[in-house]
């Protein structure tokens, strides 16, 4: 497709991604992997061209990490997984009576970081590209090392590392079972099972008398919504005017540093960048507001960098983000595939040029910012109130459960659905009991399909 044909797809899908995930960011607890990944997979399977898929995804993560600050700051509940590190600082600012300041600092930091992260990540990917063949050649062992490193760096630490062994063996066994039953292996079912593991575990707990008793509530949960407060009139503030010079510089610096890395946990990077760039500020109010800007900016830059660097330079999902929410961009059979034995790929890495990642990535981020930043700055209070009063969290979960069931049935019928439920139940339990998060489990899946065959061949 020529450039003029690509632009409408990029703009249209970026608008769709920004709208869908800008709204989903308002719903507290909507985990990125369990929401972004399945819908991105659906977009791919519907036949959207690569540029449209990429623009959709980039707009989705940019929009969600702007609006996830709304429930985090105004309601005191995390908008998603990466909003959790912002919660304490947001709560302290709520207690000071300035939650609206916390919100503005957070989303303004996110805007600056997102715009910086795309070119920096593309540049770093370009530097790594000459080494891509060498990296691909040792991919099975890199996945093993990356899985171990991500496990040890997770909250589960050594428990998550040890739990990788039975989890990998479970994947190997289920893959052999599916191949015997269907005459082909599965990948989407494993991916969706891991992505929705905590949800599946909760559904099974609800079927158990003891588990149901632990979930029972005597009354509907209540939240205290902070008052609406606007300190400007007329045109929309500039993010560089919302942040003071030092906050803007610190946010930009954190974005550059975190955009040049792609193997660390996004949550860990969010905490680290906040402490590094704002931890030494002595004034309590300035430190908290700076933390909000830098940390939320880091949620944007890590997600963008951990998607773009492996996607451009290598073509294999060698990062926690690439192995999680961004996984469909790498592996979405039969459209995008990874050859486990050869270590080769046929995905966005092969279908788009580096300049397209830069141009359409920036275009998608700008569209997401233009659509969500004014909304979050002016309508945050009204939107948060409407979501909490009118939108059923159970209905959102039910919709995603139905979508996941349909996609599994599409790939391998009832066998694929049973595999997804099994992997999800075990993975959800490991997540809840041993803090083995979905990023570790996704790396475990790639160890099962890439490293285990390599080890078997070596021993044979």
From TrEMBL:
User: Where is each DUF112 domain found?
Assistant: 12-433
Keyword list, A-Z: Membrane, Transmembrane, Transmembrane helix
Write down the InterPro entries for this protein, in alphabetical order. DUF112_TM (IPR002823)
From which residue to which does the signal peptide run?
Answer: none
Q: Which Pfam families match?
A: TctA (PF01970)
- Its domain of life reads Bacteria
Transmembrane intervals: 6-27, 39-63, 69-87, 107-128, 134-153, 160-179, 185-207, 303-323, 355-376, 397-430, 442-459
Protein name, UniProt field: DUF112 domain-containing protein
């Amino acid at each position: 497709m020529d450039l003029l044909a690509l632009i409408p797809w990029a703009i249209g899908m970026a608008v769709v991604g920004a709208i869908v995930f800008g709204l989903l960011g308002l719903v507290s607890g909507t985990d990125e992997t369990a929401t972004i990944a399945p819908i991105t997979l659906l977009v791919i399977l519907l036949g959207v061209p690569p540029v449209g898929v990429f623009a959709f995804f980039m707009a989705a993560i940019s929009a969600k990490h702007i609006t996830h600050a709304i429930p985090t700051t105004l309601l005191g509940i995390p908008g998603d997984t990466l909003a959790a590190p912002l919660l304490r600082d947001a709560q302290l600012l709520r207690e000071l009576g300035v939650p609206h300041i916390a919100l503005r600092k957070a989303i303004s930091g996110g805007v600056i970081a997102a715009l910086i992260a795309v070119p920096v990540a593309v540049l770093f990917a370009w530097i790594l590209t000459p080494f891509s063949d060498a990296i691909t050649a040792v991919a099975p062992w890199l996945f093993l090392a990356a899985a171990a490193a991500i496990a040890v760096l997770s909250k589960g630490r050594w428990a998550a590392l040890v739990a990788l062994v039975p989890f990998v063996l479970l994947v190997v066994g289920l893959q052999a079972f599916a191949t015997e039953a269907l005459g082909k292996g599965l990948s989407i079912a494993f991916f969706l099972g891991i992505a929705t593991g905590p949800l599946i575990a909760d559904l099974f707990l609800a079927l158990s008398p003891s588990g149901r008793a632990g979930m029972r509530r005597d009354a509907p949960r209540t939240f205290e919504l902070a008052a609406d407060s606007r300190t400007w009139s007329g045109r929309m503030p500039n993010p560089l005017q919302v942040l003071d010079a030092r906050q803007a510089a610190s946010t930009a610096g954190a974005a550059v540093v975190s955009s040049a890395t792609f193997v660390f946990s996004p949550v860990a990077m969010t905490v680290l960048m906040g402490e590094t760039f704002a931890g030494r500020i002595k004034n309590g109010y300035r430190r908290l507001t700076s933390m909000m800007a830098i940390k939320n900016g880091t949620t944007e830059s890590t997600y963008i960098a951990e998607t773009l660097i492996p996607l451009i330079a290598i073509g294999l999902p060698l990062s926690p983000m690439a192995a999680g929410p961004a996984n469909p961009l790498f592996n979405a059979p039969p459209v995008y595939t990874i050859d486990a034995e050869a270590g080769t790929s046929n995905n966005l890495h092969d279908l788009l040029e580096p300049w397209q990642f830069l141009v359409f990535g920036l275009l998608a981020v700008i569209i997401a910012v233009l659509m969500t930043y004014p909304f979050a700055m002016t309508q945050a209070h009204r939107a948060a109130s409407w979501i909490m009063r009118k939108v059923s969290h159970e209905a959102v979960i039910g919709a995603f459960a139905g979508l996941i069931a349909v996609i599994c049935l599409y790939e391998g019928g009832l066998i694929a659905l049973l595999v997804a439920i099994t992997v999800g139940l075990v993975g959800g339990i490991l997540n809840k009991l041993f803090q083995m998060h979905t990023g570790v489990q996704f790396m475990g899946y790639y160890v099962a399909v890439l490293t285990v065959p390599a080890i078997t061949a070596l021993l044979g």
